C-alpha cells in the first residue's frame, strides 16, 4: 500500500513546513494547514498527548536513583520502564493515523532509536513502499 507524500492537502513536495503541534504532517503553507485542520485535529491531538505522556514518564524515570537509561539492551526487562516504553508505542500508533510517508519515516526512526536497531536501516521508496536498504556506512565516533 503506497502512502502519499508531501503537503497533506495538495501533495506538493517542495518548501514544506511541519505541523508545529504533531510534527508528523507536512503542509506547503499556512492556508493548507488551516484548510486541513478539522480532518487532522484528532490525529494531531493524539500525537501531542502521546508526546506529553513520554515526557512525563521520562521525568519519572530520571527521578529514580541511578541512571536507568544506561540499560540499553535490557531496557524492557526493567519493570519501571514499561509505562515509558508503552508511551513510545502509543506515540507510534498515534502517528500511524497520519497516512503520510513522512509520518511513517518518523515512526520507523523513533522505533529504531528506542530499540537501538540501527544496524538494519529501512528506507521508504518514492512510491511509499517500505524496502530494505543497504547498510549505510556510519563515520567512526570521535
TrEMBL record:
Keyword Mitochondrion: no
Domain called MYND-type: residue spans: 7-44
GO molecular function: zinc ion binding
Ranges where the record places region Disordered: 119-142
Entry keywords, A to Z: Metal-binding, Zinc, Zinc-finger
SUPFAM superfamilies: HIT/MYND zinc finger-like (SSF144232)
Keyword Metal-binding appears in the UniProt entry: yes
TM region(s), chain numbering: none
The protein's name: Zinc fingerMYND-type
Organism: Penicillium desertorum
